Amino acid sequence: MITAIAIMALGAVVLGALLGYASIKFKVEGDPLVEKIEAILPQTQCGQCGYPGCRPYAEAINKGEADINLCPPGGMEGVQRLADLLGREVKPLDAEEKPKAVAFIDEQTCIGCTLCIQACPVDAIIGAAKQMHTIVADLCTGCELCVPPCPVECISMPVIGENLDNWKWKYPVIELKKVA
Amino acid sequence: MLSLFKFKGGVKPQTNKTQSVSEPIAVAPLPSRLFVPLHQSIGGTPQPLVQAGDHVLKGQMIGAADGWISSAVHAPTSGSVRAVAEHIAAHPSGLTTLSVEIEPDGKDEWGERTPIDHGAMAPETVRERLREAGVVGLGGAVFPTHGKLTASKTVPMEELVINGAECEPFITCDDLLMRERAEEVIRGVGIFRDLLQPKRVLIGIEDNKPEAVAALQAAVAKLGEHFEVVAVPTRYPAGGAKQLIRVLTGKEVPAAKRSTDLGVQCFNVATAWTAWRAVAHGEPVVSRIVTLTGNVEKPRNWEALIGTPLAEFVKLGAPKADTNGYLMGGPMMGFEMPAMDAPLVKATNCIIAGSPTLFPPKAPEMPCIRCGECAKVCPHELQPFEMYWFSRAHNFGKTQEYHIFDCIECGCCSFVCPSRIPLVQYFRFAKSEIWAREKEKNAADQAKARFEWKTAREEREKAEKAEKLAKAAAAQAAKKAAEAAAAAVAPAGNEPPPAGEPAPTGAPSTNAASANASPVAVAVTANDAAPLDAEAAKKAAIAAALERARAQRAAVAPKNTDHLTAAQAREIAAVDALRQQTGLEAAPPADNGETKP
User: Fold this and answer.
1) Owning domain of residue B386
2) Contacts of B436 in chain A (CB under 8 A)
3) Are residues B323 and B217 in the same domain?
4) 20 to 30 A Cα–Cα from B170, which one of B105, B275, B293, B506?
């Protein structure tokens, strides 16, 4: 009787020590799921989801505070991928899906107030006080955060159309032909 | 005789080459307009050097190479630039690209041509010349040739392979070039040989072109070179760079490696010819030999100017009435030209007029029956049926596991598929989707990094500001304490400062020091003295503030009298003397006011 208890106790101690050691040795820093969610988000930092940036939104999704369909730049594809990752239901996007655009400053109208520079989350606007500003198109994420602060409404968001650089081969479509 | 190797797979489609080889190469007449796209090679898009209204001479550079992997573009004939604008590109998408529209003046007048002796030049100069002359791979990939002509420092260059295989059906432009201009081709190969210093030079030609083999062998003998001209078995795609290297050298280029890693470099025969023209004649690439064949009355090879609109070019062959489209390239890898005003470019080796009888419309796609024929013919030993399922299902990760990026899109799998599945189209779709995603991912990563930088910077700035404010507040507090201390010390010494007379300048700072050293003691004395001499303390504080203000003003005052020449010093002394005489010096504040801007 005593031996049995001793063996069980010993087992408990040994296994407990093992588990305790493993939990220290193989500790995972941070929450890997947040990283995975963030990797899916488009990093426009636009705040259209209601959170100040992609990281806070990813954290909110992870905590279950936010829905997965709040990111318009990510589009339906982003929702799909988040749903696949998190095992949640695919929901229609909570906003209109817009084609990708970049900001454009009308340099004739710009007064050099620097307000858009402060608003840009990715430092894609160059300029100085009372000097004309301009957008570095390659860095612009199309978040539209620079549009509302502009006092003279000189920033527009032209859509990037299809060009030879971003053209893609289409999915081979089977043509349907009308029979008689 | 060299023993040849085999590559796996491949197909033997009907070659259809005899139609266009009966006539020699002819020079195409000048078209009424030329549309020269600026971006014709892999790499950076050349910058336009001309604008509407400019007059250009034949061979004048109109687009300067942008970056090292980029190639210049030249005016194909003399004439005037009508516009530098978007024009439809020779591309399956039918999209536009920045092009220079030239109206020929009919004189076809060459600009300055400066031949160089490549043997006497540094290799860099020769490479630079090829870059300036717009020499690119004319086999179809249009990779800038100079970029391939630097010998690797780590791997010794073993073989230089010259590709004259021309395995695609219908195309005969390289065949005719080798027959008619064999000597210049061999001289061009000589340039590549001199730059790369390989141990052997192998020229591979498919054995269905015996005339070309004979012509090149004769030219090699005549020039006394030691190049080996080898007839390789006719089997599509023997003209693929990796396949030809395999056949001639037995070396198999592994995935994600280049042939240069194995000491092999490969060039097309037409590239060698243009390289010779560029070096020995100073002629940039302004034209190329294009096979016009298919459903036309007069199939033959034309030396056509780059930028010739398709409509004007095909008229030379008199297309038959039932022609319903034009393919650029061969029937295996080519694509349908999007419009009749799309121009010929450096990559255009062949234009095939299509008709319903020549290329009957494909019967509808049927389900894959897993017969494995596609895997049998794949020259890269891939499994096209697996890649097809995953591409079709948008499962791009899996397609990459099956090495979709090793696919050279040769079209063998689509050719043999009994279910008529357009396999290559699925692979192209999957590849471009993967590329687009990769690009998006990189852009997102960059945006994230920039956002994090910005956030960090803003936080740092905020912290710096807060620190500054705290410092200023602390200084203010210390000053106040010091003044209070000074006020307390003054009555203790029984010497109240007479009103109006400023306190000694040194006093506040010494007091501040003592205040810093023992703030508690100072506070205590100040508290003790305060009720007694509140009035005196206030006065002392005011006096100290006045003194501080004066010191500050003195510090701010302009110091343009520091480095003076003797003459300037004398002048100033004279003015000062004058001032003293008139009594101006008596009012120093007024003086300050004058000198301030």
Assistant:
1) 373-421
2) 166, 168
3) yes
4) B275
Strand (E) or helix (H) holding B552: helix B534-556
Is the CB of residue A71 less than 8 Å from the CB of residue A57?
yes
Test mutation, A71, A120, A122, A163, chain B, max B CBs within 10 A: A122
Pair (B410, B515) in one structural domain:
no
Q: Could A171 and B93 be called an inter-chain contact, meaning their C-beta atoms sit closer than 8 Å? A: no
CA–CA separation, B173 vs B288, rounded Å? 9
Tokens of B51: 């604008």
Residue B587 has pLDDT above 60, yes or no: no
**What is the rounded distance in angstroms from the CA atom of residue B201 to the CA atom of residue B184?**
16
Q: Which two tokens stand for residue A31?
A: 């929450």
CA distance B476 to chain A (A): 32
Question: Is B61 inside any structural domain?
Answer: yes
Each residue's pLDDT tens digit, B11-62:
999 989 999 999 999 999 999 999 999 999 888 889 999 999 999 999 999 9
Q: Which long-range contacts (CB under 8 A, 24 or more apart) does B413-416 make?
A: B413/B373, B413/B374, B413/B377, B413/B378, B413/B384, B415/B11, B415/B13, B415/B332, B415/B377, B416/B11, B416/B373, B416/B374, B416/B376, B416/B377
Q: What is the pTM of this model?
A: 0.78
Closest CA relative to residue A154, chosen from A85, A91, A88, A103: A103
Distance from CA of A46 to the nearest CA of B (A): 11
User: How many domains does chain B fold into?
Assistant: 3
Contact at 8 Å (CB) between B205 and B178? yes
Phi, psi for B160 (deg, rounded to 5): -110, 120
pLDDT score recorded for residue B535: 81
Compute φ and ψ for B382, nearest 5 degrees. -95, 180
Q: Which of B140, B166, B168, B171 is nearest to B294 (CA)?
A: B171
Largest Cα–Cα separation, chain A = 94
Strands, E assignment, B271-373: 287-294, 300-305, 325-328, 335-336, 350-354
Domains, chain A, in order of start with CATH, read 32-86 (1.10.15.40), 99-162 (3.30.70.20)
